[in-house]
Amino acid sequence: MSDIFQEVEEDVRRERYEQLWKKYGNYIVAAAAVVVLGVGGYQAWRQYDLGQRQQISDRYQAAQALAAAGKAPEAETAFLELSKDRHTGYATLSKLHLAGVYLAENKRDQAVALLRELTTNSDPAIASAARLRLAWTQADALPRSEIETILAPLNGQENPWRFAAAEVLAYIDFKSGSRTQAEADYLKLSQELEAPANLRQRAAAIAQYLKANPAGSVSTRPTAPAPVQGSPSK
Q1: What is the residue range of 150's domain?
Q2: Helix (H) or strand (E) holding 26
Q3: CA-based, 20 to 30 A from 209: which of 1, 39, 165, 231?
């Protein structure tokens, strides 16, 4: 008897499924098609986007090579085009390189304007690198108080850029004739264990020279900080 009830129950269930399919089958097929097309479209877009990013990466490296080879006008054109690209990471890094190219071409005003713009960037590494380069660029043109204002955000106790900022101020002390203070500044920097090794070595050499040559001259400006390296945000 139970078998009969089971068969009846299965028939009723089958009939309900058939009614549902007749009523909603077309919608189910359409929804499945949308899912399939969506997945396929996403994969196609992803491949296209990866290809575009690779092309931009190649252009960025080519622009770097032009700058390294001293071909400033060509590098300027290349970085300027990249700075307008929709891939924000490469655009921002290209602006930082472009500022360096402007300086190489003695286009100081353009470099300063671009660096000031980059100091407001949302990426702390980009903003800090731009701030440091701006300070070095203006070190011979602005009073110490204005350079201190530029560098102020880098002076936090945990900020990794604080030693590089201190080096700019040590240079300003030397440039302004405060040799005793400059010697103390460089000596302190040379003893900062958390500072980069090359900065400590440079500071130690300058402090030693200033001590041995109280009236001598020395170039205490290091090479301008290179633009931030690494994979740009994409």
Answers
A1: 144-234
A2: helix 2-68
A3: 165
